[in-house]
Amino acid sequence: MIVWLNGTHGAGKTTTSALVQQLIPDSRVFDAEKVGETLMDIAPALPGPGTDNFQHWPPWRPLVVETARHVLDYTGGTLVIPMTVLVEEYWREISAGLAQHSIPVRHFVLHADQDTLRGRIAGDTVLGPDSPFRLQYLGPYAEAARTWLHDEAEVVDTTHITPAEAAQQIAEAVKGNDG
């Protein structure tokens, strides 16, 4: 099974994924961003779109599917994937690829209101305060949430809860589905 944690930057995906992994037996965190980083390291650079966002390169999506599939074939269990996907076509491609391999996916969106997200980004100690990279995704996230994303996933509002509380909510939802 895959537990996919979606949402924009600052929603708490990375922190929450590590906590979810601790709560779900036989689970591992798979950072699909590393697949993108590998593509970004190819020299000379891949042609076409993608220099600002590796998700735009067509190989990224099937490589995420294949990597997840091979890891699950090797280890079994659950993969927790913290990854922002805001383009509906990309999400459909990934979820269809996983479905082709009969891999069940629980898709969660970690949501917070815009003021909370801006506050978290302002206090970010990883990319630094007010990261332009993180700020540029607030608008696209709001649009995706309004038009398709919240309809495609289980929304966990992190505005007033801790990452540990969000992880507990996700783990309980996943475990509740197993029985």
Task: Report what the structure shows.
The structure is a single chain. The chain has 179 residues and is of the alpha/beta class. It is 51% helix and 13% strand. The chain is built from eight helices and five strands. It has a five-stranded parallel β-sheet, sandwiched between helices. Helix 1 packs across helix 8 (163-178) and helix 3 runs parallel beside helix 4. The chain starts with a strand and ends with a helix.
Q: In a nutshell, what does this entry contain?
A:
It contains eight helices and five strands. It is an alpha/beta fold.
Blueprint (SSEs and pairs):
Elements: E1 2-6, H1 13-23, E2 27-29, H2 33-40, H3 60-75, E3 78-82, H4 88-100, E4 105-111, H5 114-122, H6 132-135, H7 138-152, E5 154-157, H8 163-178
Helix pairs in contact: 1-8, 3-4
Q: Strand-and-helix sequence, N→C?
A: EHEHHEHEHHHEH
Number of strands: 5
Helices, by number, come to 8
Approximate shape: globular
Sheet-strand content, in percent, reads 5-15%
Low-confidence stretches: none
Distance between the termini: 14 Å
Percent in helix: 40-55%
Largest sheet, strands/sense/barrel: 5 strands, parallel
Q: What characteristics describe this protein?
A:
5 strands; 51% helix; 179 residues; single chain; alpha/beta; 8 helices; 5-stranded parallel β-sheet
